Amino acid sequence: MAPTQRPLTPEFAKIYRQLLDKTEMLWFQFSRLVPQIVAATAGLRTKAWGAPVEFSWRSSLPPEGTIHVVEATYGESCQNYTPKYPAYNWVSRGNATAILREECAGKTSCLFSFEMQKIGDPASGCAKDFFVAYRCRQGGPVRTIALPPEADGKTVSLDCLAPP
Predict the structure, then answer these.
(1) What is the pTM (predicted TM-score) of this model?
(2) Collapsing DSSP states into helix, strand and coil, what is residue 133?
(3) Burial 150-164 (b: 16+ CB within 10 A, else e)
(4) CA 106 to chain centre
(5) Distance separating alpha carbons of residues 159 and 145, to the nearest angstrom
(6) Count of structural domains, the chain
(7) Does residue 37 sit within a domain?
(8) Which CATH number belongs to the domain containing residue 86 in this structure?
(9) Which of 6, 23, 53, 142, by CA, is between 20 and 30 Å from 108?
């Protein structure tokens, strides 16, 4: 056990057992998520550090042969940057995924002009990169596109018609 770790107390075990024994609320039944969580956890343990993460419950996949954005991140190059107060760094992996999915999902090719104002500036004062990981079929290879800093105003081309 590491010096900063402490063993669980009997009091913790008692409270935890009481919570497990409580009846689940009808509108949220955690026990129904257990199989998905177990599968996702196993997948995360085998995934290389930094590799895109996919969870089955996040979205339904678009038709085969069309673009499925796995992850899109704006500003990972600024992950450790500290902006001047009062601004703060809110860079997070996948921060541009939703907007790119909305724009490109279901298409066989997609030109996406990245504009910072669409998601905001996650690290004011730092030149940010842009990274996209996508697939063209379920279980197919992940295709990636990376734009160096500053990516604001640049265009990426996602294409399922071109060979990988």
Answers:
(1) 0.60
(2) strand
(3) ebbeeebebbbeeee
(4) 19
(5) 11
(6) 1
(7) no
(8) 2.60.120
(9) 53
